[in-house]
Amino acid sequence: MPPFPLTRRRMLQMGAAGLALSQVGLRPDPAHAAETVALQLSWLHSVQFAGSYIAQRNGWWRDAGLDVSLLQGGPNAPVEPPVVAGNALVGISAADYTAAAVAQGAPFKIIGVAMQKNPFVIASLPENAVRQPADLAGKRIGMAIANTPVLQALCQLNDVDFNAVQIVPTQYSAQPLISEDVDCLLCWETDLPVAMAMQGIKAVTMLMADHGYAVHSQTYIATEESLADRRDALVALMSGEVRGWNAYRADTDAAAALTVEMFPDAGLDLPTQKLQAQRQVPLMFSAQTDQHGFGWWSDEAVEDNIRTLALLGSKVTPDLWDRSILDAVHGG
Amino acid sequence: MADAVIGTLILLALWQGLAFALQDRFLIAGPAQVLGWSIANAGLIGRALVVTGSNAALGFLAGNLAAIGLAALALVVPRLIPMISGLALVVFCLPMVATGPILRVMMGPGNGPQIVLAALAVYYTTLIPLLAGLRAAPASWLDLIHVYGRGRWAELRHIRLRAALPYLAAGLQIAAPAAFLGAMVGEFTGAERGMGVLTIRFTRALDIPAIWSLAAIAALVAIAAYALIGGIARRILHEPPPVILAPPPGGPTQRGWMQALAVLIAVLALWWAGMRLAGLSPFFAKRPSDVLAALAWAPDAAQTRGTLATALAQTARHVLPGYCAGLALGAGLAVLLGLVPRLSAVLTPLAVALRSIPIVTTAPLIVLLAGRGAAGTVLLVAVMVFFPTFVACQHGLRQAPGRILDVFDSYAASRLRKLIHVGIPAMLPALFAAARISVPAAVLAVTVVEWLATGGGIGGLMSLSASVSDYDMLWSAVVLVTLMSWLGHAVISAAERRVLATHAPEQVRP
């Protein structure tokens, strides 16, 4: 709590002043100037969110007058309620989940896209590999039943007979593939295949995003109310993210090491984190982000997302995406 | 004691052998691997254990204090008993999938939700035996107090509290593993550290030695807590803690229906007012009217009802066989040990261990071992139901009246004959008490397994609904699950009254 009453406007002014001062080498006293905000992560701490850790550790948010707490996610920690309730200013979601929440009446906008390419892959073993969608015919695929629409969409996008694929309901683990109870798994590029690699088992992965499955993932969401009232805080938060992720890209090993160091109780293993950090680079950075900056998206990408989301049974319009915060970050 | 040591060694050898035989399948880590991993990661696991353990301990304390407070209130105002036990049952039946995220939003980061969920997991199993215990005083003692012209306070202090102590001890013993489970599940709502967090991490990473080490350590802690409370109780009470032999609450009489209605109205009022007062957003905190609309007159109401019915049918196919198997196994083992008492030294520790391992760590393991089909889920439900039934039935068998046994002995009746004609009838009240208390436990088990491991049924539907923000569906499922547990409880109470009226009339006398 600040020692004297502060209005939100005054805090923002002080934050902006701090931003200006920091550029000439003067830093505001963070205890007095900081506006407290939270970023709700979508899963347990890991290198998946290392850009945020880098921003935190280097004080880039503090210098901008923000005191950011990073709230860990988990299997029983949906991202949307804390963002709606105002406990978190920004949440890490994905276009499909955000679209579903908006359909249920939540006033969300996507203000940044960390994973330009959806991380879903079909993972298989080399001797019985799925390299093309056509290879799926006749295969047993291990996945959560809840993801059936995802597989249906992939089949439809690639003219594969959905009924020729046999779905085996599995928990989210590589074990059924290793023991050959299934021929392939629907999972993320950055978790189960990494776990397999660390156990010395090579997996072939077919990235669904390379075969027409366009759903933005690890998206930053905020409410319309925050977009109207807390613009400066949003811009400051996203600038820190952009800076953090650029630093991440420059040295993923250092990002992995920082992650393991910051969360000693999370049971993280450095080699695993390093591999995961490398594997998510191609999902997050492209020629387009090189040109326009981290988190940016094109109008065509939005069209592709709308088409894939329609296959998943969700109707969205382009105004689900709001580029104004990123414009301020990259333009300012 | 020697038997127990030998039994433990045999189990360890079997475990190691199985691990060795299946070593390439990423299923089982043997005791040697578990020991090695635990030593290598002693710091990590130690810190996690301290975090989860202290949350569990705080929840244990809070939950049991709440139970004692409610029992005291019931004693002072006996008319409130049906309302208190009705509300307590409803709150106990609330699935953690739904309560977790709400607690997190209300309490923010930190240990709040873990402690509250641990408290919620324990208060019911303490409250019910306590309510029974406070009434378990012989009428002649109470008369004595009144003859001396003393009032209710003396009655409470000198008789009822003492009569209730053994029941309290039994409740606390059951509560210890439950508190640990509640604290671990609480960590799934976004806690920074603890045993639950590590379980998720290592399951994803396919770190088999780590998963088995977590399960083994959690089991050891739970067994230690169980034994410690049992030991303290034995010291204070000088006789083994009895098992809950509570007479069932009001049957399907006119008054019973009125009480049920009163509880229903209270639940709806508390639900509505609670969300209002906490200022929870109607986006995720649905009110009774939202649920009614979603099920009755929303445009997609028919579809919602269909989805719920399908999921519920799937859950029923898992929970009913598991529940019946658990009851049969528990009663069967108790009877078997009655016939061959020597086996007890080996089987009782195994039974305690099975029950004590938190279901959160066993769920991935049992699903790995028994497959993702119905078998794994049925097995887990059976394990949850088995142990309380086993303990209760063992106690029940010991209640066989000595004078009747003497009669059988004088006719040189066989052990089997005595069991059928004396032991089993004496066991029935305990079996029914266990069956009643196991209803919410079985529902909890099946929803947790579906939620964390198999993804099917009503538990899977609830977690899916939360992930796609379909909170109308989630809350409808919560209402349905709670209603089912309550109905199951009521059906068994009715059966209990009917059977006991013939076999143990003293239990159902008002």
From TrEMBL, chain A:
<feature type="domain" description="SsuA/THI5-like">
    <location>
        <begin position="48"/>
        <end position="254"/>
    </location>
</feature>
<comment type="subunit">
    <text>Homodimer.</text>
</comment>
<dbReference type="GO" id="GO:0009228">
    <property type="term" value="P:thiamine biosynthetic process"/>
</dbReference>
<dbReference type="InterPro" id="IPR006311">
    <property type="entry name" value="TAT_signal"/>
</dbReference>
<keyword id="KW-0808">Transferase</keyword>
<comment type="pathway">
    <text>Cofactor biosynthesis; thiamine diphosphate biosynthesis.</text>
</comment>
<protein>
    <recommendedName>
        <fullName>Thiamine pyrimidine synthase</fullName>
    </recommendedName>
</protein>
<dbReference type="GO" id="GO:0016740">
    <property type="term" value="F:transferase activity"/>
</dbReference>
<dbReference type="InterPro" id="IPR027939">
    <property type="entry name" value="NMT1/THI5"/>
</dbReference>
<keyword id="KW-0479">Metal-binding</keyword>
<keyword id="KW-0784">Thiamine biosynthesis</keyword>
<dbReference type="Pfam" id="PF09084">
    <property type="entry name" value="NMT1"/>
</dbReference>
<dbReference type="InterPro" id="IPR015168">
    <property type="entry name" value="SsuA/THI5"/>
</dbReference>
<comment type="function">
    <text>Responsible for the formation of the pyrimidine heterocycle in the thiamine biosynthesis pathway. Catalyzes the formation of hydroxymethylpyrimidine phosphate (HMP-P) from histidine and pyridoxal phosphate (PLP). The protein uses PLP and the active site histidine to form HMP-P, generating an inactive enzyme. The enzyme can only undergo a single turnover, which suggests it is a suicide enzyme.</text>
</comment>
<keyword id="KW-0408">Iron</keyword>
<keyword id="KW-0663">Pyridoxal phosphate</keyword>
<dbReference type="GO" id="GO:0046872">
    <property type="term" value="F:metal ion binding"/>
</dbReference>
<comment type="similarity">
    <text>Belongs to the NMT1/THI5 family.</text>
</comment>
TrEMBL record, chain B:
<keyword id="KW-0813">Transport</keyword>
<feature type="transmembrane region" description="Helical">
    <location>
        <begin position="115"/>
        <end position="134"/>
    </location>
</feature>
<feature type="transmembrane region" description="Helical">
    <location>
        <begin position="167"/>
        <end position="189"/>
    </location>
</feature>
<feature type="transmembrane region" description="Helical">
    <location>
        <begin position="210"/>
        <end position="237"/>
    </location>
</feature>
<feature type="transmembrane region" description="Helical">
    <location>
        <begin position="31"/>
        <end position="50"/>
    </location>
</feature>
<keyword id="KW-1003">Cell membrane</keyword>
<dbReference type="Pfam" id="PF00528">
    <property type="entry name" value="BPD_transp_1"/>
</dbReference>
<feature type="domain" description="ABC transmembrane type-1">
    <location>
        <begin position="45"/>
        <end position="233"/>
    </location>
</feature>
<keyword id="KW-0812">Transmembrane</keyword>
<feature type="transmembrane region" description="Helical">
    <location>
        <begin position="442"/>
        <end position="461"/>
    </location>
</feature>
<feature type="transmembrane region" description="Helical">
    <location>
        <begin position="473"/>
        <end position="492"/>
    </location>
</feature>
<feature type="transmembrane region" description="Helical">
    <location>
        <begin position="352"/>
        <end position="371"/>
    </location>
</feature>
<feature type="transmembrane region" description="Helical">
    <location>
        <begin position="417"/>
        <end position="435"/>
    </location>
</feature>
<feature type="domain" description="ABC transmembrane type-1">
    <location>
        <begin position="312"/>
        <end position="492"/>
    </location>
</feature>
<feature type="transmembrane region" description="Helical">
    <location>
        <begin position="378"/>
        <end position="397"/>
    </location>
</feature>
<dbReference type="InterPro" id="IPR035906">
    <property type="entry name" value="MetI-like_sf"/>
</dbReference>
<feature type="transmembrane region" description="Helical">
    <location>
        <begin position="257"/>
        <end position="278"/>
    </location>
</feature>
<feature type="transmembrane region" description="Helical">
    <location>
        <begin position="320"/>
        <end position="340"/>
    </location>
</feature>
<dbReference type="InterPro" id="IPR000515">
    <property type="entry name" value="MetI-like"/>
</dbReference>
<dbReference type="GO" id="GO:0005886">
    <property type="term" value="C:plasma membrane"/>
</dbReference>
<dbReference type="GO" id="GO:0055085">
    <property type="term" value="P:transmembrane transport"/>
</dbReference>
<feature type="transmembrane region" description="Helical">
    <location>
        <begin position="83"/>
        <end position="103"/>
    </location>
</feature>
